[in-house]
Amino acid sequence: MRKFCLLLFTLIGLSASSQTNPDSGKNSYALKVFLDCSYCDMDYLRTELTFIDYVRDRMEAQVDIIVSSLQTGSGGTEYTFVFKGQQKFAGQNDTLRYNATSFATDDLTRKGVAQTIKLGLTRYIAKTSYASKLNISFTKDTAHTSNQVNVNPALDKWKSWVFTCGGYGNFNGQQLTGTTNVNGVLQASKVTPDWKVSLGVNIGYNYGYYIISPDSTIKSISQSATFNGLYVKSMTEHFSWGINATETNSTFNNIEHQEKLQPGFEYSIFPYSQATHKLFRLLYYFTFENSRYEDSTIYGKTHTFYLGQELLASVNFKEPWGSLFLSLDGSNYFYDFSKNNLTFSTGFSLNLFEGFTLAVGGSASIVNNEIYLPADGATEAQILLSTKALPTPYQYYFFVGIKYSFGSIYNNIVNPRFSPNSYNLNFGF
User: Fold this and answer.
1) 141 SS3 class
2) pLDDT given for residue 214 in this prediction
3) Which residue among 105, 128, 217, 259 sits deepest, i.e. has the most Cβ atoms within 10 Å of its Cβ?
4) 168: part of which helix (H) or strand (E)?
């Protein structure tokens, strides 16, 4: 082992000493940029945007680019790019947006992202020694002439409706075990500046068998189906109201059939136009719930109709110092306020100092509303295979992580060798 380590360090030393230019991966006078985008194709951007230096720490950057995204009503994605000038560009900030349709390929999307970054960086590059190399071109719209303007936009035969259907399944097994999982989805949505409507159907089926002995085989089956409809009306930049309707069945939750109707309203502290950057909202639902159960519940019920309410408060921020998410969700039934649920969720990342990032997150719930649990409980097999909900007064989840990097601040080189699974895989932390 010692000989192997000595050989490895020798090879590394020879490789380092063979570099005739230690800074060959950077441009001496190029703009230093930190790109905060966990879902961007960084190899592609480094290949296409070669006129800047990509630095691995935002403290070293002259321009800090923060990218966030929201799903659009057509099923596409709206990317928001916040450009923050630093050092000699301090105070020179800008915001650009790029919309990728639901039909856009990965290649078309990454080209649009690259083009938007180029546009946003133009004002900064214009003040560097690279300005003389900057070339701006314009592609004329061949559909128009200089004396004509198209005042009749193309008619949309779908009337802004977008439909999505799909499914997936996985099947695996060996001599003594096997599982089958099948899921399907059908969705339709229409979004305008004043209102939006969304309809969806989701189904799931899971089957597994486990041969314990020639005379003993355990089988597990769980299935679910959900129909959801949502209508939302925009009133102002801060206020909207809507109604959510759900129809569900779930063997896991002992629900044969459940209808839920939830009218409600939402108030956003910040304007909705800033939602990709910061969002602080309060959402209230009044709930009508009608349920039929497969087996008699722990309260001796096979059918219930209850009224209830739900209040959700959530905060989202994404800034150069990191990101923050906070959420508090509480609900209860009016017939018995002790039948309630309270969930607190949080997650944040902090860029504490150069190269060091801390990420913490999790959720905790107080659970007092499991009125659907079957009176007979769950069998040992159902507990082990997680095919039935189990009684619990609480639930929790927690994670923590740190990341520290040091060395050269430059990160321009693309070398995909010996990385067969690296294409377009990006992880934020």
Assistant:
1) coil
2) 85
3) 128
4) strand 161-173
3-state secondary structure of 110: helix
The two three-digit tokens of residue 413, written as one number? 């080189």
Q: Which residues contact 201 (CB under 8 A, 6 or more apart)?
A: 184, 185, 186, 187, 225, 226, 227, 228
**Distance of alpha carbon 221 from alpha carbon 164, whole angstroms:** 27
Rounded CA-CA distance 86/31 in Å is 11
| 233 contacts 195 by C-beta, under 8 angstroms | yes
Phi, psi for residue 56 in degrees, rounded to 5: -90, -5
Instruction: Give 173-204 as a DSSP string.
Output: E-SSEEEEEEEEEEEEEEE-SSEEEEEEEEEE
Residue 160 phi, psi (nearest 5): 70, 5
The DSSP H or E segment spanning 139 is: none
Round to whole Å and give the CA distance between 98 and 70: 11
Residue 46's nearest CA partner among 119, 108, 113, 136 is: 113
Partnered with residue 68 across adjacent β-strands are 80
Report pLDDT for 412. Answer: 56
**Domains of the chain, each with CATH number or no CATH:** 27-130 (3.30.160), 160-226 (no CATH), 235-404 (no CATH)
Name the helix (H) or strand (E) containing 381. Answer: helix 380-385
Predicted confidence (pLDDT) per residue in 179-235, tens digit: 999 999 999 888 877 888 999 999 999 998 888 888 888 888 899 999 999 999 989
Separation in Å, CA 124 to CA 45, 63, 64, 269, 342: 18, 8, 11, 33, 48
pTM as predicted: 0.65
Three-state DSSP state, 100 = strand
Cα–Cα distance, 166 to 164 (Å, whole number): 7
Tokens read off for 353: 């100092």
* Contact assessment for residue 185 and residue 201, using Cβ atoms and an 8 Å cutoff: yes
- Name the burial class of residue 305, with classes exposed (0-12), middle (13-18) and buried (19+) by CB atoms within 10 angstroms of its CB: exposed
- Token pair 């639930």 is found at 395
Write out the two tokens for 381.
């097999």
Instruction: Record the tokens describing residue 97, joined without a space.
Output: 């947006």
Task: Measure CA of the first residue to CA of the last residue in the chain; give whole Å.
Answer: 32
Reading the block at residue 100, the tokens are 């990728």
Residues 6 or more apart whose CB falls under 8 angstroms from that of 138 comprise none
